[in-house]
Amino acid sequence: MNAFRLLADLTHLLSIIILLVKIRTTKSCAGISLKTQDLYVLVFISRYLDLFTRPLSLYNTPFKLVFLATSITIVYYMRYHKVVKQTYNKDSDTFKHYFLILPCAVLAFFINPKFTFIEVLWSFSIYLEAVAILPQLVLLQSSSNIDNLTGNYVFMLGAYRALYLLNWIYRFFAEDVVRWIPWIAGLVQTALYADFFYYYIKSWRNNERLKLPE
């Protein structure tokens, strides 16, 4: 355990709390991509099947259960809650997210640490998480009015991945641990957030409402 990983996990948790607060308090999921949330459910289910095969951890297990439960809860609200589902703008959530799944599955099948069922699923979850934010970013680009909670949620998600990348760099120098899959996936994912980070920080410094260029 190191400070980068702890901060990353807490930032990830905070991002989910922000999204749940938005949905529960405003009864709205406006500006949130259901397609990205669907992908995150698939990511967490694929990654955390090891709950049934590995010893329980006082640190990891609670986080895994929380991330699974909250991701499924968010999708439930957006699909089935009688008020929240009416605020979902399907016409703006246009990214073909299912095109991301097959390439990630192929990569996981051929490029994984150990060719076992759990390791292939873990690799798949890493590859898919790297690109799962794309539908959300595309949706934000088409939005003329990005509320603060949505902007903060996406920023925290990006910060979580950047911190996890620092965690792997730290482990390389401090523990001589090399895991190329999360390194490369983390670089790709952080790069996808770069444009958003720029406009988020710019709007914060100028005290302006966040807006992304189309």
Query: What does the overall shape look like?
Result: globular
Tell me the major beta sheet. none
Uncertain regions: pLDDT < 50 for 5+ in a row? none
- Assign a percent range to the helix content: 55-70%
Number of helices: 8
Structural class: mainly alpha
Structural domain count: 1
Give the radius of gyration.
Answer: 17 Å
In whole angstroms, how far apart are the ends? Answer: 40 Å
Q: Percent of residues in beta strands?
A: under 5%
Mean pLDDT: 90
Order of helices and strands: HHHHHHHH
Tell me the total number of β-strands: 0
Main location: endoplasmic reticulum
Pfam family, one: ER_lumen_recept
Protein name: ER lumen protein-retaining receptor
Transmembrane segments: 61-78, 98-115, 121-140, 152-174, 180-201
Description of the molecule:
By secondary structure, the chain is mainly alpha-helical. It has one domain (3-205). 70% of the residues lie in helices and 0% in strands. The protein has helices at 3-26, 34-47, 60-80, 98-110, 117-131, 134-141, 148-175, 180-205. α1 (3-26) packs antiparallel against α7, α2 (34-47) packs antiparallel against α3 and α2 packs antiparallel against α5. The longest helix is centred in the C-terminal third of the chain and has 28 residues, at 148-175. It is globular, with a radius of gyration of 17 Å. It starts with a helix and ends in a 9-residue tail after the last helix. The model has no long low-confidence stretch (mean pLDDT 90).
